[in-house]
Structure formats: C-alpha cells, structure tokens
Design brief:
mainly beta, 18-stranded antiparallel barrel, 494 residues
C-alpha cells in the first residue's frame, strides 16, 4: 500500500494532519488489527483441528466448523463441571504432559491414576541378592503342651523360637528354591522333654526343553519321634531323636499326547535313644536303615481336563544291623502299582487320585508280608475367593520293632481349610483321621486330630500368630494316648 501523504497547494509540507490523512491512518490501523485477529483465530482453530483429517488429507471448511462447534460444547461442559467440582482446586485431573518427557510432573496425593494393584499387600518383600530373593523371618511363641500316654503324663510351658529362611531364584528359565527352618525350645515350667526341630530343603527345576523337565531335590529333617508313631515306645518320657536324609531326581518328558516321568529316590534314617518314665534308656540304633526307590509313571492326554495314568514302583530297605534286638532280619523289598487320573479345572479345582496295591516282603521267613490296597491323592478346591480347601489321602507301609510283628499299613485322610477374613487376617482349620492296620499280633489303631490357628499382619514386617491342636490315638486292646498344644506369638521379617 502506498503511503498516505500529500503536499499542499503552495508546495510545502503541512504541519497539521488533514482530514483525508486521518481517514487513511484509521483504515490502516483497522486493517492491521483485523489481520492479527484473523491470524490468531486461524491459529486457535488449527490447534483444535489437530488430528482432524478429511478425505485425501485435506481439512475442509465444513470439517473446521464441526470441530469448532464440538470444542465449544466441551468447553461449556468443562466450565459447568469446574463450577461444581472442587477436586479441580487440588489438581485431581493431571495436566497434559509431553509423552516421554524426562522430568515428568508429579501428581497430587489424591490422584490415583498411577496406582498399581498389589494382590498381596501384606506379603513378604524379601531381600534381593543378585538374581535371588531372600525371605527370612523369626517367630517367638509362648506355648503349652500336654502329653498323655497310658499312665505316663507330661505337661510343660515353654518358649519356642522358630527361625525360617527361604532363598528363591528370579531367573527367566529354571528355578532353584532353598528353604530352612530351625525350632528352639526352652522349658519355662513343668516337665517333659524339649523338642528341637530342624528342616532343610533344596529343590532345583531344570527346563531342559519345551517338552522335558528335570527335578533335583535334597531334604534333611531332624525331630523327636511322635508318640502316635507306629513304633513309639509306650509310657516313654522322651521318644528317640530321628535324623532323616533324602535325595531324589526325576525326569518328565512329553511324547505327543503321552506324559512320562521317571524318579529315583534314596534316603537314610538314624534313631537316637529313648528314655522311659523311670529313667531307663532304650537303644534304638537297630532301626538305622537306608532305602532306595524307583518309580515310573505314564499318562495320556485325552483332550479334556483329565489325564489318566498308571504308576509302578520298586524299593529296598537295608538295615545297618542284619538282625534287630529281637533277632529278626528286617530288611525288605517293596512293590507297588497304581492307576488313577490327574485333573485340572483351573485355579478353582485341581488334583489327582489313584488306587492300587502295595506289598513289602521281609527277609525273615517268620514274618509275613505287609500288604494291602492303597489309595493316594489330593484335591485343591477354592469354593470362593479367599478360601482354599486341600483334601489329602495317603497310604504308608510301616515296619515294626515288635517281635513276631511284621508291620502295618496306615491310611490317612486330611483336610486343611484356609480362609482370608481380611486382607491381613487369615484363619485356618485342619482335621485328621487315620487307621493303622497291623498284620500280625498288635491291635489296630485309630488316630483323630483337629487344629485351628490364625495369622494377623499389622504390616508387611510384623504380625501375630497362634494356634491350638489336639490329637488322640485309640489302640484296640491297649492304652490310648493324647497330645495337646496351644501357642501364641509374634513374627518379624525384614
């Protein structure tokens, strides 16, 4: 545009601004203002139209008008919400941030958009050591025991310290788990033997391929023999100490729809002296033995939730002493065969059950075999969230230390119910019923047991626990025995 300037009639520049110049200046300023406003509106519209693309990538005037109307509607709704929602004052709605920014804006306390759900808010955190996680804990209890065995009765109050530690690998492949537990008893008042216990376990899983898995396991357990055991000494003040060592190796492979598992197990058990109520010491070293077992299992996937299988095993027990205190050769050979099915209906119901037959032939010809039908299995059932039920069935062949008695077969059924009352409070209930069938002279036994307990976590590192348990053994033609336990304590973990 050419400048609005003009000379007067006499050829000199006028010092006053004529009317035509004022009109020209006003028009120029108005055009400039209009241009700035239009540019600003176009820029705002472009910001609103980001992401709005019409056919062939061209934004038409109609698309622009629709986007503007939608933006005006959203703005009006947000204005109404701002008037009645006080959360905007505290910044509950986080501001828009550039994705991938290095220094992200910190949200306010009441902003829960970034919270992550924790399924175990009171579970152990553990200590990371390289590629392993260590979970130690210590429990201190005050407990009370009552043991009644025929005419012998002991009762005591004692302090029990339980040290536990679990080391678990955090690998993408394979898994190693090491667990240890030590129980330390100290009698405060009353009589009765102290009952220290030690448990150690190592389990290594090797994922050799998609279809082949190997497991290696080593166990050690030390404790006092229970008075409800088949070979517990009647009227004893303290049963013998038992050391159990065990190791096993198994290989599982998938052949199409078939599943096969081979397992080799070996162990050793040693027994200490028992003490009678009158102070007499009874040597139990003739019970020291070694054992070996080979088990083969084959199953087929029938395309449903069931996996039928057959299983057979062969084992040997070799005693350190060829003859026991009564002059009997107790070494033996064991055979067993079972058929059953494993089932898996998801996390709500799974398990397996098998029935079969087992027989143990003893070297001494004067002793008949220990034999009978078997039933083994377990069921994991969750009737509702937070409630888990475990049912178990087991059959065990047991040797005897009594003259002219070859042994017994023991059937047991157990139930354990765990219920989460709150996310930090868990209660449990357990039951036991067992039947011991002797082959020769001794009267059969029936065992009943019940227990209840709770765990209450104040936080991840501190909690209370307690429980009671009662077990009664009824012997046909003999004396009965009773065991009662009650304890209450606290648990600490890092």
């Amino acid at each position: 545009m050419a400048p609005c300037r003009r000379k007067n009639t006499d050829g000199e520049r006028s010092s006053a601004l004529p009317k035509w110049a004022a009109v020209c200046l006003t028009s120029t300023l108005f055009a400039a203002a209009t241009t700035n406003t239009s540019a600003q509106n176009i820029e705002d519209e472009d910001l609103l139209l980001r992401g709005v693309v019409a056919d062939e990538g061209v934004v038409t005037a109609e698309d622009r008008a629709d986007a503007l109307r939608e933006a005006e509607t959203v703005d009006s709704e947000e204005d109404e919400d701002d008037a009645g929602d006080t959360r905007l004052i505290t910044g509950a709605i986080p501001p828009v941030q550039t994705p991938g920014a290095v220094n992200q804006r910190q949200s306010t306390i009441d902003d829960q958009s970034n919270l992550v759900f924790d399924p175990e808010p009171f579970g152990p955190v553990g200590i990371r050591i390289g590629s392993f996680i260590l979970r130690p804990s210590v429990t201190q209890q005050i407990a009370h025991d009552i043991d009644q065995d025929g005419s012998s009765r002991t009762e005591r109050t004692y302090s029990r310290t339980v040290l536990r530690s679990e080391l678990e690998s955090d690998w993408s492949r394979h898994q190693l788990r090491i667990y240890g537990e030590q129980v330390i008893d100290k009698t405060i008042s009353g009589d009765g033997p102290e009952d220290p216990q030690t448990l150690a376990n190592m389990d290594l899983r090797l994922d050799l391929s998609d279809s082949t898995t190997a497991n290696l396991e080593v166990d050690y357990e030390f404790g006092r023999e229970s008075q409800s055991d088949a070979n517990a000494i009647a009227d004893a003040f303290a049963q013998s100490d038992v050391h159990d060592f065990a190791a096993s190796a198994s290989l599982t492979r998938i052949f199409g729809s078939w599943r096969g598992t081979a397992t080799i197990e070996g162990g050793r058990s040693t027994y200490g002296d028992a003490q009678l109520s009158d102070g007499t010491i009874v040597t139990q070293s003739d019970r020291n033995e070694k054992d070996y077992t080979v088990t083969l299992r084959a199953g087929v996937d029938i395309g449903s939730a069931h996996l039928p299988f057959v299983e057979g095993d062969y084992g040997q027990i070799i005693y350190d002493d060829r003859l026991d205190q009564n002059g009997f050769a107790r070494s033996s050979r064991t055979y067993g065969i079972r058929a059953g099915t494993a089932f898996d209906f998801g996390e709500k119901l799974n398990g397996e059950i098998a029935v079969g037959y087992a027989q143990r032939d003893i070297d001494d010809a004067r002793l008949g075999p220990v034999k009978g039908p078997t039933i083994d299995g377990f069921v994991n059932w969750s009737p509702r969230r937070g409630t888990n039920v475990v049912l178990g069935l087991s059959t065990t062949l047991e040797d005897s230390t009594t003259a002219d008695e070859s042994g017994s077969i023991y059937y047991a059924a157990t139930t354990e119910v765990t219920h989460q009352l709150r996310e930090n409070v868990t209660a449990n209930l357990s039951t036991l019923i067992g039947w011991r069938d002797y082959m020769e002279l001794l009267g059969d036994q029936t065992v009943y047991g019940v227990g209840a307990g709770f765990t209450w976590w104040i936080n991840r590192r501190f909690g209370f626990e307690g429980g009671v348990a009662y077990e009664k053994t009824v012997t046909r033609g003999g004396s009965d025995s009773d065991e009662f336990f009650a304890g209450l304590g606290i648990t600490l973990r890092p």
